[in-house]
Write a structure and sequence with these properties.
- The chain contains 18 helices and two strands.
- The chain has one domain.
């Protein structure tokens, strides 16, 4: 018996894809140039002189230690450098390769992130061009090039930009029914973005619906193989086959007694309440487990508090309460002045992008991008709501802007053709009236 995907169109790609034209090259070049100008300008004028702190400094430290032969290690949250699993490995490994060749520096990390951001824009353009149209690709490319949150992410050494490239590659692999590659990319995304730990469930369900259980099992098996080396390394170096040791930090930061009393984020490393956990910090795994147990226990004693967290985080992530994001945006090296002046761009793209995704929901590319965006957004509702973590949804919204452009202009052209006495292109001719 043939597999289900062999008896139906593989994707919503046209059977005879149109050729790449000079117009496509000019459009893509212009969009990438726009993205480059905005990112370089933002870095040079507003944030380039800022010292790396928080997550960015940790990624750079791990990459430097890797490049100089000190292993996957960093000092945080201890006083000495130690083997760590607090950060996922993909992005530090990427940086370490360039650090090994050119030497470690914060400037190099920032420059590499800009290159990754421009590569993401180009890949998004090509993806939308391949599965929708040139017009939609131009709209999506411009939307992503000017998205304020993505510009800020692309100028600071964080894992978000690399993860967006993997998401786009994953969408392409799923649409092309490349199931082994789908498993590989889902594994790499999990090793790039901590919140991707449960995305495999969504992917497997998709494959079950659109293919069969054998293909779903293939995806799950390849996914497990990709994760195995990292899990074994952590078992040996950390003490358990864990993906990351930051889950406990997130649970305690949002659900511990001081977090509930504060109605928001608290830092388990510095808050006085956690004085009794200081010695545990010298064993990363123990610290993680104790903090997670505390967070879970505190939530169980007040289960309705999760509703408060979700509502508050929704306001923060959707920039409805931007004043709540001052600390997080500062820790991510952002200019609050630029943020305040450009928030309207996000609001416009939010409305148009959602319209475009929902209006074209019959397209599998819309389904996949919206599903992954809502998945990551949903997890951020429950834990730390830093705006940079909204990046997967921003990616979906940017593509949604292109899809909205395609939908609205195609409808307008169809109305114009009908008014002129012509049948809309692609529509079957109406039967003659006797």
């Amino acid at each position: 018996m043939q597999d289900r995907e062999e008896s139906r169109p593989l994707t919503d790609v046209e059977l005879t894809p149109r050729p790449w034209t000079r117009r496509d090259s000019f459009a893509l070049s212009g969009i990438v140039a726009l993205g480059a100008v905005l990112r370089i300008g933002y870095l040079v004028v507003f944030t380039g002189s800022r010292k790396l702190v928080s997550d960015g400094s940790q990624y750079v430290e791990i990459a430097k230690n890797l490049a100089t032969g000190h292993g996957y290690s960093m000092q945080y949250p201890q006083l000495v450098v130690h083997e760590t699993a607090f950060r996922p490995p993909d992005y530090p490994l990427f940086l370490a390769g360039f650090y090994w060749i050119f030497g470690p520096s914060a400037g190099l990390a920032r420059a590499l992130n800009i290159v990754l951001g421009l590569a993401m824009i180009a890949l998004a353009y090509w993806t939308v061009w391949r599965y929708v149209s040139t017009r939609a690709a131009i709209g999506a490319g411009i939307a992503l090039a000017v998205m304020p949150n993505l510009i800020a992410n692309d100028t600071y050494p964080l894992e978000d930009t690399l993860s967006l490239i993997i998401i786009l590659l994953l969408v392409n692999a799923v649409l092309r029914r490349r199931w082994i590659l789908t498993g590989v990319l889902t594994g790499l995304l999990t090793l790039s973005r901590p919140s991707a730990q449960f995305l495999i469930v969504l992917v497997v369900v998709w494959v079950l619906v659109h293919a069969n259980w054998k293909k779903a099992l293939t995806v799950a098996g390849v996914f497990a193989l990709v994760l195995t080396p990292w899990l074994v390394r952590n078992w040996v170096q950390i003490g358990e086959p864990v993906l990351v040791t930051s889950n406990g930090f997130n649970w305690a930061a949002m659900y511990s007694p001081p977090a509930q009393a504060n109605h928001g984020f608290v830092d388990p490393v510095f808050h006085p309440y956690f004085k009794g956990y200081r010695l545990a910090q010298f064993d990363e795994l123990t610290w993680n487990n104790e903090l997670q147990a505390l967070g879970v226990r505190s939530l169980k004693s007040n289960p309705t508090y999760v509703v408060h967290v979700a509502i508050k985080n929704a306001g923060d992530l959707l920039e409805l309460t931007p004043s709540d994001n001052v600390f997080g945006e500062g820790a991510d090296g952002r200019s609050l002045g630029v943020r305040d002046a450009t928030l309207w761009i996000f609001y416009v793209e939010l409305v148009i992008g959602l319209f475009g995704l929902l209006a074209t929901l019959r397209r599998q590319i819309s389904q996949l991008l919206l599903a992954q965006g809502l998945y990551f957004f949903g997890l951020s509702l429950l834990f730390i709501p830093a705006p940079r973590l909204r990046a997967p949804l921003d990616l979906a919204l940017g593509v949604g802007v292109g899809l909205a452009l395609e939908k609205l202009t195609a409808r307008r052209e169809a109305v114009s053709q009908t008014a002129a006495g012509h049948e809309p292109i692609g529509e079957p001719a109406a039967p003659a009236v006797e």
